[in-house]
Amino acid sequence: MLAALDARRSVPARQLDEPGPDDATLLRMLRSAVRVPDHGKRVPFRFLRITGDARQALGERVAARALARDPAIGEGALEKERRRFSHAPLVLVVIAVLDPDDSKIPEVERLFTAGSVCFALLQAAQALGFGASWLTGWPAYDAEILRLLGLGAHERIAGYIHIGTPRLEAPERERPDPVALLSDWHAP
Ligand SMILES: Cc1cc2nc3c(=O)[nH]c(=O)nc-3n(C[C@H](O)[C@H](O)[C@H](O)COP(=O)(O)O)c2cc1C
Hints:
Elements lengths: L1 H6 L8 E2 L5 H11 L11 E7 L1 H17 L5 H9 L6 E8 L9 H21 L3 E5 L7 H6 L6 E12 L11 H4 L7
Antiparallel strand pairs: 1-5, 2-3, 3-5, 4-5
Helix pairs in contact: 2-5, 3-4
The structure holds flavin mononucleotide (FMN).
Flavin mononucleotide binds next to strand 4.
Family: Belongs to the nitroreductase family.
Pfam families: Nitroreductase
Cofactor: FMN
């Protein structure tokens, strides 16, 4: 398990090709991903799957919205928006479901749970031989895009998890030094 944790790394979406996980493999991934710590057992998350033609269709709508947000946006940037969801064969949107009437479990803790799902998904994808990336960007926060994806007023996007078969081995990056991050508390 430690070896798997230590080997985890993101694969940029642009380097994720077909094949993506089939239905059974995706469900296998989700079975691992939903085993997250969850204060109050609220299950404050759900998934939205974007595959096939839906990826390009979403990209077109995102590009149109990008143009509305910034009429001076260049054609290069617009094309990038059109292709935003078309690299990997599967984009799984992890949606945080945040019941406003839940006064017992702080909202931030329910968000932590949804974020943990994203991380667990990355690990499950890699364990099954796929590459994955947790991305957000402005389309994770834009009210019109959230409406287009069918999010309710009390839902937020925790992440777009792009999943596919890595074209190349992703380069490792420098990791934080835990020694520098650890301190001991002593009673004052
Ligand atoms: C909530 C969240 C959102 C992120 N959004 C983006 C993003 O939009 N674009 C991006 O390049 N990286 C984004 N990242 C970073 C990548 O997922 C990834 O962590 C980074 O490329 C480093 O790779 P690593 O996972 O191997 O450390 C995000 C990470 C988190 C936790």
